[in-house]
Amino acid sequence: MNLDNVIAERPNKTVYRDGDAAVKVFSEDYSKSDILNEALNIARVEQSGINIPGLRAVTMVDGKWAIVYDYVEGKTLAELMAENPDKEDEYLEMFVDIQLSMHAKQAPLLKKLWDKMATKIDASSFDATTRYELRARLSSLPKHHKLCHGDFNPSNVVITNDGTPYILDWAHATQGNASADAARTYMLFCLHGNKELADKYLKLFCLKSDTAKQYVQKWFPIVAASQSVKGNEEEREFLNSWVDVVEYE
Questions:
Q1: Counting beta carbons within 10 angstroms of the beta carbon of residue 212, is it exposed (0 to 12), middle (13 to 18) or buried (19 or more)?
Q2: Whether 109 contacts 150, CB under 8 Å
Q3: Are strands 5-10 and 13-18 parallel, antiparallel or unpaired?
Q4: Cα angle: 102, vertex 106, 114; to 5 degrees
Q5: 54: helix, coil or strand?
Q6: Per-residue pLDDT tens for 193-226?
Q7: 246 pLDDT more than 80
Q8: 28: helix, coil or strand?
């Protein structure tokens, strides 16, 4: 296995290209159960029929766990947006269309989004009153079974040379409410300091999915609270400001 060609680096993980394969190597302290769950998510999402890099193996590399999957040649939508700022609206529309095509699929063996959110809320550092209000809001929202990515952003969508989109990184995949997935995407844009693009995204998502903006916004405190559990200190400060269980304007 050749690990000379680094194609991506993230906290606690590095992705290498080895010929027609990609090898994601995790740090030694990374949770084994999270790694195996990610591999299982990939296998289950593959069955939905959408374009994702196929799972090849779960293995050990120099004493570290690794996931091996197909390498997809192309550029991410994040790269295309950065290289062609005049086409940002065109790429954003493509991005939303890809997300909606994903939400049209089901992967019934995935963990349920509602259960994951409830567990994360309970594990958060918020006081008991806030956790109660968040759980009450979560309980009041519909429990759908759509395929949700959980980290859907332009850097996780690769467009091949022939224009075929592939969705990467299924560590946070669940089955649940598409508006929760959209709320997470909106927050990711905001976390990267692009509030203007976040607002354009939300408007486009709601238009194309025929969803009321207020409905997506109901998920903001819930998604923010769940994401604050593993976020770094700077992210937690930002996310905590969203955990205000009042109606958005």
A1: exposed
A2: no
A3: antiparallel
A4: 95
A5: coil
A6: 999 999 999 999 999 999 999 999 999 999 999 9
A7: no
A8: coil
Question: Tens digits of per-residue pLDDT, 167-190?
Answer: 999 999 999 999 999 999 999 999
Provide φ and ψ at 162, rounded to 5°.
-95, 10
Return the pLDDT at 5. Answer: 93
Please give the single-letter amino acid code of residue 42: I
Whether residue 138 contacts residue 121, with contact meaning beta carbons closer than 8 Å, is answered with yes
Backbone angles phi, psi at 224, to 5 degrees: -60, -45
Spatial contact of 222 and 117, defined as CB atoms under 8 Å apart: yes
Whose CA is closest to 77, among 157, 187, 186, 161? 157
* pTM (2 d.p.): 0.92
Q: What is the model's pLDDT at position 239?
A: 81
Q: Read off the tokens for 103.
A: 């939400």
Number of residues that make up the chain: 249
In this prediction, residue 171 carries a pLDDT of 94
The CB-side HSE value for 3 (13 A sphere, CA atoms) comes to: 14
CA–CA–CA angle 201, 117, 29 (5° rounding): 100
Q: Which of 234, 91, 240, 58 lies closest to 157, judged by CA?
A: 91
The C-alpha atoms of residue 32 and residue 217 are separated, in whole angstroms, by: 34
Asked if 79 and 144 count as a contact pair (C-beta separation under 8 A), the reply is no
Structure tokens at 69: 């999957």
